[in-house]
Write a structure and sequence with these properties.
Number of strands: 6
CATH architecture: Up-down Bundle
CATH superfamily: Outer membrane efflux proteins (OEP)
Helix content: 55-70%
Order of helices and strands: HEHHEEHHHEHHEEHHHH
Largest sheet: 4 strands, antiparallel
Number of helices: 12
Strand order of the largest sheet: 2-3-5-6
Length: about 500
């Protein structure tokens, strides 16, 4: 920006003329540089090369909950409610209300907005007032020839300083445009923080449920292995089993028990994570607990159109706002190379007594104007313009990369869900087969018809199958949450920034 400072005074009539002239200059100004327009939506009709197909499962395999992609559907505002978990709903509400990351994002919006408002102040004349009283004693040597007396007097000066920058080339217009875009970017970053927080809470809750399932499965295996150990000890006491079989079973039991503490540690750490996401200290643990049996797999999964997804994902919109800001800064750099106009003035009054300050004959004013143009600056301004243009190219590339990544996220989530149903089927089938095999072997062990090696293998196979089944179910739930995240969530466009929490959680929005 070019700064103007008033150094001399101005009369009322001259002030009016200056204001009219300045207004004419502003109205006649043109903003140099590129005029920004939003990038068009990619000319892409789908997320995968083939037509979107809902997740399928083997009709001959174990029955699993079905899911269906609804092409072109809208993401609900409270998408996490599709899991039908009251504890999850309450924990997300707590997190949105208390998490400092959202509060930081809200403060960032205010910072950007106030900076934009401050820049707008340069559209108006800058006015300052000054009052300077003084008491002076004149020396004999300068009071005049033959004058041997010193003169002492008071001097009061009051003046109004006025400065104005005519935005002839639109430099300030482009600066304001850039700062407005940064404010818009901060708003989309708030949406991104909200979406990331809700998705992180949902995913962390699913992971907690998975750990509880794995712990329960491990405890079932430990109970079975203890029962088998009891059988072998009875057989050993009766002379029907060797001591080596008893020792092998004790080792297998100890190995299974050894897997339990790491799972319990992970569960405790997961609880700490959920507590932190809820904006609470680790000592104030949350009350909500999560189990896989109490999380419902959403049946209908809306998959928005690609153009809608691009317009809805906050990271894409934030990248677009960054592109807008970079475009405006090119105009700022171009305007800095053009002639700079200066208008300055001041008006005031000087008198020996304060009471005489505004009497006739004490007023004074000065009006001045100038135009300056850099003749040679070592190509500094030229290279600053080229740097701004390169920054625009960079922002454009980052925007396109953000869009590509968004499509990749959706495609990954779709592919994962298409495979998850079959993975859960296979895991259930493997667990059922392993349990049936272990039950038969356990009965045969009572009759002394199998050796200990077969028993140990059956126990390990069942433990692995049970853990895998729990993880497969949890993965399907997590991938469902990942799809909602990839599609941009369901931020309501009619929510005011000042009270968006109430808007998000009120029943009217929840029904969308």
């Amino acid at each position: 920006m070019h700064a103007f400072r008033a150094k001399k005074p101005l009369h009322a009539a001259a002030l009016r003329g200056l204001a009219v002239g300045a207004s004419a200059l502003v109205l006649a100004s043109c903003a140099v540089g590129p005029n920004f327009s939003s990038p068009p939506a990619p000319d892409v009709a789908r997320y995968t090369p083939e037509k979107l197909q809902s997740p399928g499962s083997d009709p001959a395999g174990p029955r699993v909950a079905g899911q269906r992609f609804v092409n072109g559907g809208d993401i609900p505002t409270r998408w996490w409610a599709a899991f039908r978990s009251a504890p999850l709903n309450e924990l997300i509400r707590m997190s949105v209300e208390r998490n400092p990351s959202l509060q930081s994002a809200e403060a960032a919006i205010k910072v950007a907005n106030f900076n934009a408002l401050a820049q707008r102040g340069l559209f108006f004349p800058q006015v300052g007032a000054n009052y300077s009283p003084s008491r002076q004693l004149v020396s004999n040597d300068v009071s005049g020839p033959g004058n041997t007396t010193q003169s002492e007097y008071s001097l009061h000066t009051a003046q109004l300083n006025i400065s104005f920058v005519p935005d002839v080339w639109g430099e300030n217009i482009r600066n304001v445009e850039s700062l407005d875009a940064i404010t818009e970017q901060a708003q989309f970053q708030l949406e991104a923080a909200y979406l990331a927080l809700t998705a992180n809470v949902a995913t962390a809750a699913i992971q907690e449920a998975s750990l509880r399932g794995q712990i329960a499965a491990t405890e079932r295996i430990i109970k079975i292995e203890r029962d088998i150990l009891g059988i072998l000890k009875n057989q050993f006491n009766a002379g029907q089993a060797a001591q080596v079989d008893v020792l092998a079973q004790e080792a297998a039991l100890a190995q299974s028990e050894q897997t339990l503490p790491p799972l319990q540690k992970q569960l405790a750490i997961q609880r700490d994570l959920l507590t932190a996401l809820a904006g609470q200290f680790s000592a104030d643990a949350i009350l909500q607990k999560f189990d896989l049996e109490r999380l419902t797999l959403p049946a209908n999964l809306p998959v928005t159109l690609p153009s809608t997804m691009v317009a809805q994902r906050p990271d894409v919109r934030a990248a677009e706002a960054s592109l807008h800001s970079a475009s405006a800064l090119v105009g700022v750099a171009i305007a800095a190379r053009l002639p700079n106009f200066l208008i300055s003035a001041n008006a005031g009054s000087t008198a020996f007594n304060f009471s005489q300050l505004f009497t006739p004959g004490t007023l004074f004013y000065t009006v001045a104007g100038s135009a300056t143009q850099s003749v040679f600056d070592g190509f500094t301004l030229y290279h600053k313009q080229k740097a701004a243009e390169a920054a625009l190219d960079q922002a454009n590339a980052l925007y396109r990369q953000t869009v590509i990544t968004a499509f990749q996220n959706v495609a990954d989530a779709v592919r994962s869900l298409q495979a998850d149903a079959r993975a859960v089927q296979a895991a259930i089938k493997a667990e059922n087969a392993a349990k049936a095999s272990l039950d038969i072997i356990q009965k045969q062990l009572v009759l002394g018809q199998v050796n200990q090696v077969i028993v140990l293998n059956a126990q390990q196979v069942y433990l692995n199958a049970a853990i895998t089944r729990v993880q497969a179910v949890a993965t399907r739930l997590s991938d469902t949450a990942a799809l909602f995240l990839a599609l941009g969530g369901g931020w309501p466009t009619d929510c005011p920034t000042s009270d968006w929490r109430s808007c998000v959680f009120e029943s009217r929005v929840a029904s969308k």
